[in-house]
């Protein structure tokens, strides 16, 4: 493998090596003092991105303006040009909070270009911003909401579901937030450093699909484990067995497959969700079924 | 009653405000709401147990851009208030909280999308002044208004709901309690199903079963399952990367022909060798 990789890099030595070194670097060591200060500002402001949602039309707009405030202040000391830039950015913005900093870093880099070159096409900034929302949110939601939060919750819940120890929520918060904050910072720098063609490169190389797929593997294993832990069904019916003790139906169910009802019920819900049945109906239906089972003495 | 309602309001407000204003640290997930409300109502253990049960139900409730199917904070806070202050049974409280969560969601989408739209002219104003400190005022002022508005249903729920609930608690028959417990046991299935659908891909769906078996038959703890999953992901990653490489070479081979063929021929021989 390694020999062959060398082969490839040698072929396009000049071009690929530059791109590669830029691609992986999230260090700020070789950036100027002003750059570092601005990136720190954007990073800190980015935490407040969704403090106010701003209604259907301007969702996330004030947050984005606030997050990029350090860049506006730095690149546009002239008030007229700053106003122009801020008006341009007072539009709908929505990317998963902790990966959206990539977009912010990138926009900061483009605003820098714009401030230096009067003939810069500002529409390209809007275009990049808009085109990043879909893919970045897709991958961000899958990894952070779908996998990391799920793993953190699984570990946290397992700690405290029975005992109620405060370790549960604390462990949950730590497992989720440490990678989340690291990612937030690294992507701020990465966004500022790399060109706008980074995501395109990832997509063309098939890496984006691969990351999504692997995140899915991790997520599905954890969800399976949680289904077994937290979906509970216990049949209370017993069958009289001649002279001996009555046999519990639950014992039979467990012999067929341990946790048969929970897994079937969950997969049934998945199937209904795929048929676009509204979640609310599933929740209401489950409540009704649960209550009915209790009334009839089945559970 | 006013005091309880104010405490409940505070619990909800803290969860919302911290969640939205400080970078979504997931403090509005029921497991953390349980901790916050438990601390405020003076019974952390019960709070966290209820929070964990609610987490299992609402874990599939992904809050993306305010478009959710349920809003569990209000319900969780109310359930904890009723259990710790009025002696309501946990199963019944959890089922009640689930119903509240669905209803609350309607109110929240109104706050997010309709009420806060009245704030958007202020964003335009701030942008047109070109002063970032005006953005600060508009943004954080809006945050206070929005998060306080989101905590009001909790206040109303406790203020008007506590008395009827206190009266009801003593007269619930056993069959109903059993039913509530059964419902509380099955409800997490919906949450899990939502998650599964989000990540579903028929090629990897079988991993769901693997996770299930790890717990049901092997009895592995969650950290053990996570470690096992990490091993599988790393193995899978290497395999997939190899596959991707081979695919690229094949493409190059097909597209290139002639001159490229000579180069890639080398590589393929090498590939064979290393495989």
TrEMBL record, chain A:
<feature type="transmembrane region" description="Helical">
    <location>
        <begin position="50"/>
        <end position="72"/>
    </location>
</feature>
<feature type="region of interest" description="Disordered">
    <location>
        <begin position="1"/>
        <end position="28"/>
    </location>
</feature>
<feature type="transmembrane region" description="Helical">
    <location>
        <begin position="279"/>
        <end position="298"/>
    </location>
</feature>
<dbReference type="GO" id="GO:0009401">
    <property type="term" value="P:phosphoenolpyruvate-dependent sugar phosphotransferase system"/>
</dbReference>
<dbReference type="InterPro" id="IPR004704">
    <property type="entry name" value="PTS_IID_man"/>
</dbReference>
<keyword id="KW-1133">Transmembrane helix</keyword>
<feature type="transmembrane region" description="Helical">
    <location>
        <begin position="167"/>
        <end position="190"/>
    </location>
</feature>
<feature type="transmembrane region" description="Helical">
    <location>
        <begin position="92"/>
        <end position="110"/>
    </location>
</feature>
<keyword id="KW-0472">Membrane</keyword>
<feature type="transmembrane region" description="Helical">
    <location>
        <begin position="142"/>
        <end position="160"/>
    </location>
</feature>
<dbReference type="Pfam" id="PF03613">
    <property type="entry name" value="EIID-AGA"/>
</dbReference>
<dbReference type="GO" id="GO:0005886">
    <property type="term" value="C:plasma membrane"/>
</dbReference>
<dbReference type="InterPro" id="IPR050303">
    <property type="entry name" value="GatZ_KbaZ_carbometab"/>
</dbReference>
<feature type="transmembrane region" description="Helical">
    <location>
        <begin position="210"/>
        <end position="231"/>
    </location>
</feature>
<feature type="compositionally biased region" description="Polar residues">
    <location>
        <begin position="1"/>
        <end position="14"/>
    </location>
</feature>
<protein>
    <submittedName>
        <fullName>PTS system mannose/fructose/sorbose family transporter subunit IID</fullName>
    </submittedName>
</protein>
<keyword id="KW-0812">Transmembrane</keyword>
TrEMBL record, chain B:
<keyword id="KW-0762">Sugar transport</keyword>
<keyword id="KW-0812">Transmembrane</keyword>
<dbReference type="Pfam" id="PF03609">
    <property type="entry name" value="EII-Sor"/>
</dbReference>
<feature type="transmembrane region" description="Helical">
    <location>
        <begin position="207"/>
        <end position="235"/>
    </location>
</feature>
<keyword id="KW-1003">Cell membrane</keyword>
<keyword id="KW-0813">Transport</keyword>
<keyword id="KW-0598">Phosphotransferase system</keyword>
<dbReference type="GO" id="GO:0009401">
    <property type="term" value="P:phosphoenolpyruvate-dependent sugar phosphotransferase system"/>
</dbReference>
<dbReference type="GO" id="GO:0005886">
    <property type="term" value="C:plasma membrane"/>
</dbReference>
<keyword id="KW-1133">Transmembrane helix</keyword>
<feature type="transmembrane region" description="Helical">
    <location>
        <begin position="94"/>
        <end position="115"/>
    </location>
</feature>
<protein>
    <submittedName>
        <fullName>PTS sugar transporter subunit IIC</fullName>
    </submittedName>
</protein>
<feature type="transmembrane region" description="Helical">
    <location>
        <begin position="136"/>
        <end position="160"/>
    </location>
</feature>
<keyword id="KW-0472">Membrane</keyword>
<dbReference type="InterPro" id="IPR050303">
    <property type="entry name" value="GatZ_KbaZ_carbometab"/>
</dbReference>
<feature type="transmembrane region" description="Helical">
    <location>
        <begin position="33"/>
        <end position="58"/>
    </location>
</feature>
<feature type="transmembrane region" description="Helical">
    <location>
        <begin position="180"/>
        <end position="200"/>
    </location>
</feature>
<dbReference type="InterPro" id="IPR004700">
    <property type="entry name" value="PTS_IIC_man"/>
</dbReference>
């Amino acid at each position: 493998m390694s020999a062959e990789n060398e082969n490839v890099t040698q072929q396009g030595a000049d071009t690929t090596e530059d791109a590669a070194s830029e691609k992986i670097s999230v260090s700020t060591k070789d950036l100027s003092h002003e750059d570092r200060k601005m990136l720190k500002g954007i990073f800190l402001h980015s935490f407040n991105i969704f403090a106010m949602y701003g209604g259907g039309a301007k969702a996330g707009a004030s947050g984005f303006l606030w997050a990029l405030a350090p860049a506006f202040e730095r690149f546009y000391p002239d008030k007229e040009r700053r106003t122009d830039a801020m008006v341009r950015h007072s539009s709908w913005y929505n990317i998963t909070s902790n990966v959206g900093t990539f977009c912010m870093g990138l926009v900061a880099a483009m605003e820098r270009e714009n401030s230096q070159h009067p003939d810069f096409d500002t529409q390209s900034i809007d275009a990049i911003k808009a085109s990043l929302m879909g893919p970045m949110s897709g991958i961000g939601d899958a990894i952070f909401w779908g996998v990391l939060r799920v793993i953190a919750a699984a570990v946290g819940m397992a700690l405290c579901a029975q005992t109620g120890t405060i370790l549960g929520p604390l462990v949950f918060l730590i497992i989720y937030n440490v990678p989340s904050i690291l990612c937030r910072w690294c992507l701020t720098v990465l966004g500022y450093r790399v060109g706008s063609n980074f995501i395109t490169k990832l997509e063309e190389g098939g890496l984006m699909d691969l990351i999504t797929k692997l995140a899915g593997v991790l997520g599905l294993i954890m969800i399976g484990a949680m289904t077994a832990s937290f979906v509970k069904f216990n049949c209370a019916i017993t069958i009289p067995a001649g002279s001996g003790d009555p046999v519990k139906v639950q014992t039979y169910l467990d012999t067929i497959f341990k946790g048969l009802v929970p897994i079937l019920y969950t997969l049934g819900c998945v199937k209904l969700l795929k048929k676009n049945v509204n979640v609310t109906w599933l929740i209401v239906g489950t409540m009704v079924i649960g209550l009915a089972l209790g009334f009839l003495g089945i559970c | 009653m006013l005091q309880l309602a104010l405490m409940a309001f505070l619990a909800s407000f803290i969860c919302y405000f911290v969640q939205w204003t400080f970078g979504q640290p997931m403090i509005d997930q029921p497991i953390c709401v349980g901790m916050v409300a438990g601390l405020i109502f003076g019974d952390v253990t019960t709070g966290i147990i209820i929070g964990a049960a609610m987490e299992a139900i609402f874990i599939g409730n992904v809050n993306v851009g305010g478009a959710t199917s349920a809003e569990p904070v209000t319900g969780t806070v109310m359930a904890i208030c009723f259990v710790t202050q009025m002696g309501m049974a946990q199963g019944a409280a959890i089922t009640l909280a689930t119903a509240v969560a669905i209803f609350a969601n309607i109110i929240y989408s109104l706050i997010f999308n309709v009420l806060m739209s009245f704030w958007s002219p202020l964003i335009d104003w701030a942008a047109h002044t070109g002063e970032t400190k005006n953005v600060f005022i508009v943004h954080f002022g809006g945050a206070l208004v929005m998060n306080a508005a989101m905590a009001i249903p909790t206040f109303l729920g406790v203020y008007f709901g506590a008395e009827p609930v206190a009266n009801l608690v003593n007269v619930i028959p056993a069959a109903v309690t059993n039913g509530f417990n059964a419902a509380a046991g099955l409800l997490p299935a919906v949450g899990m199903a939502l998650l599964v659908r989000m990540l579903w891909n028929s090629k990897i769906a079988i991993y769901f079963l693997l996770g299930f078996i790890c717990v049901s038959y092997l009895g592995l703890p969650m950290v053990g399952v996570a470690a096992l999953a990490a091993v599988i992901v790393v193995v899978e990653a290497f395999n997939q990367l190899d596959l991707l490489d081979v695919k690229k070479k094949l493409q190059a081979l097909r597209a290139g022909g002639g001159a490229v063929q000579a180069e890639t021929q080398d590589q393929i021989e090498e590939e064979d060798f290393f495989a």
